[in-house]
Specification:
By secondary structure, this protein is of the alpha/beta class. It has helices spanning about 5-30, 50-65, 90-100, 110-125, 165-175, 230-250, 255-265, 280-285, 285-300, 305-315, 320-345, 345-390, 395-405, 410-425, 430-440, 445-460, 460-485, 490-510, 515, 520, 525-545; strands at about 35-45, 70-80, 80-90, 130-140, 155-160.
């Protein structure tokens, strides 16, 4: 793919993205309906006796059920601090469930002021013309000083249980903001601030109640953002367009990738790859080049560039260490953003995404190295058979290895090519083959090198020695496959038992956030979460020891 053609593709994809965004905007603007919402601030401090706490929850539930069906309701719980339990949604039953399951903590209500600020912030996403109100149910335990202010009308349902309850402050808050005050039994009457109405067109709607377009069905109560087909299509188009632009900026040629990989396997005999040609460096984009350069300096400062280069070489990847670090960083940020969207909590999504991204890149290298070594071990008996046949035909050992390089398959051909390259610059052949055995972590290769050393010391028929070694290798490979087949059921059970709690926990974090919030907002929940993680790790190690059979 040349640069001109790729540039045209990127432009076409960008145009498709613009069209998709336009279609999404057109479909969203076809209907205009007024947006009305209320955020309930529920005091969950533990100074409430059991009867009053139940009465408070009952008053909040009656208020929600008295709201018209098109009024969105959200929930913030507060005591010494505040928690956004649910964003505004028309799923009133979900709000009722969140109120009933709200945990109690602390013995003060000092988080009211910050809760009011967060409520206004959560309501601001509905648009500047949305009709919004706040409802506070509290005993104002421990509140002192002047009453907090609010630009949004605040309705109040106050309690007075103890002498330090500041009920007048709540009344002042309602009066200053244009709200109303109701006794707990009459909390449902405050819903009359939202009279029942039918959606009207934008032309007949007064400016004070006009709002941006809203879909007829509100988003689910547990989803922090709303997804639609036009939005997903436009995002996908933009991602593809950006990917093409990045490929062009970094000077990567899709058609030349295989050629560069083969050239790297043939021309390089060490873990550190050759530097890019000046022409390729000129093609590399400024942003990509700056990121790669910064990562390269960081790796050199930490002294980890050479170990990472060796692991990349073992994995058969021709990418530079700095480029791999930049790619891993991008993947990590994407995972962090995705988990934050799914979980809906920044403080869990970002750390989990960063750890998952780092572990996934390390796991990728380990898997590729393991597969490459397993492929080498599988090819080794056939390679030694070819060497033995070449020796019996009169070739020298070096010539037999050259035949393996020319006729063998990867990764065996590349490893023996490396060994031959080392011998051509003065290394001993047996030492070069020992290096291959160490790189591939192959005990069978070590035995073969030992046989070669013994034959070179005392003489004998090397072809016959290699044939005996090959027969032993094949018998061991047969036994290993037999054991693997017998232990397949145990390995599958281990995979399911380890993955099941992780998948189920992830789904519950996404679908029932209010139910799972106790695990990371309470000390007992954190202890349970840490204990579960430790048990999963211990159980996985135990099952791995049970199903792993050495042959």
């Amino acid at each position: 793919m040349n640069v001109t053609r790729a540039g045209r593709s990127a432009a076409a994809l960008a145009a498709l993205a613009a069209v998709a965004f336009g279609a999404g905007a057109a479909s969203a603007s076809s209907t205009v309906r007024p947006v009305r919402a209320v955020m309930i601030l529920l005091d969950v401090n533990q100074s409430f006796p059991a009867a009053q706490a139940a009465a408070e929850q009952s008053a909040a539930v009656r208020y929600v059920r008295a709201l018209p069906h098109d009024v969105r309701a959200g929930l913030i719980t507060f005591s010494g601090s505040w928690t956004l339990a649910m964003r505004p949604t028309a799923a009133h039953q979900a709000v009722v469930a969140a109120i009933a399951s709200a945990p109690r903590s602390d013995f003060v209500s000092t988080g009211l002021a910050s809760g009011l600020a967060d409520a206004r912030s959560a309501m601001s996403v509905l648009g500047p013309t949305a009709v919004t109100r706040l409802l506070v149910l509290s005993d104002a335990e421990g509140l002192t000083g002047s009453a907090p202010t609010s630009a949004v009308p605040v309705d109040v349902v106050p309690w007075r249980i103890e002498s330090d309850d500041n009920q007048p402050m709540l009344v002042s808050l309602a009066a200053a903001s244009g709200g109303r005050v109701a006794a707990p039994p009459a909390a449902a009457s405050l819903a009359a601030a939202f009279p029942a109405s039918v959606p009207v067109s934008a032309a007949s709607q007064p400016p004070a109640t006009q709002s941006p377009a809203r879909n007829a069905s509100p988003p689910p109560a547990t989803a922090p953002w709303r997804f639609s087909a036009p939005l997903l299509g436009s995002i996908a188009a933009l991602v593809v367009a950006i990917a093409v632009i990045v490929l062009l900026a970094s000077g990567v040629s899709v058609s030349g990738r295989r050629g560069r990989r083969l050239a790297g396997q043939v021309g390089l005999y060490g873990p550190v790859h050759a530097a890019k040609k000046p022409v390729e460096q000129e093609k590399q984009g400024k942003v990509a080049g700056a990121a790669v350069g910064l990562a390269e300096r960081a790796l050199q400062a930490r002294g980890t560039d050479r170990p990472l280069a060796e692991r990349l070489d073992l994995a058969g990847l021709t990418i530079k260490p700095a480029e791999f670090v930049v790619l891993g960083t991008c993947v990590t940020f994407v995972l962090a953003a995705g988990l934050t969207v799914l979980i809906g909590t920044f403080w869990i999504g970002v750390p989990a995404g960063l750890v998952s991204g780092w572990l996934s890149m390390r796991l990728l290298l380990s898997i590729r190295i393991g597969r490459r070594r397993a492929a080498f071990a599988e090819q080794l008996p056939d390679v030694l058979q070819l060497i033995a046949s070449s020796l019996q035909s009169g070739f020298s050992l070096a010539q037999a290895m050259d035949a393996v390089v020319r006729e063998g398959s990867q990764p065996a051909a590349a490893e023996f090519s490396r060994a031959l390259g080392e011998t051509r610059i003065g290394a001993d052949l047996a030492d070069a083959l020992d290096g291959v055995a160490a790189r591939m972590d192959s005990q069978d290769m070590r035995w073969s090198v030992m046989a070669i050393r013994i034959q070179r010391s005392v003489g004998g028929n090397l072809a016959e020695v290699l044939r005996n070694t090959i027969a032993t290798m094949r018998e061991r490979a047969f036994l290993r496959r037999h054991v693997k087949a017998l232990s397949a059921e145990g390995r599958l059970s281990a995979y399911i038992l380890v993955a099941l709690p992780l998948l189920l926990g992830g789904w519950l974090f996404y679908s029932s956030q209010s139910y799972m919030r106790l695990l990371y907002t309470t000390p007992f929940g954190l202890m349970m979460l840490i204990g579960a993680a430790v048990l999963v790790v211990v159980g996985s190690l135990w099952m791995r020891a049970l199903i792993k059979v050495e042959v």
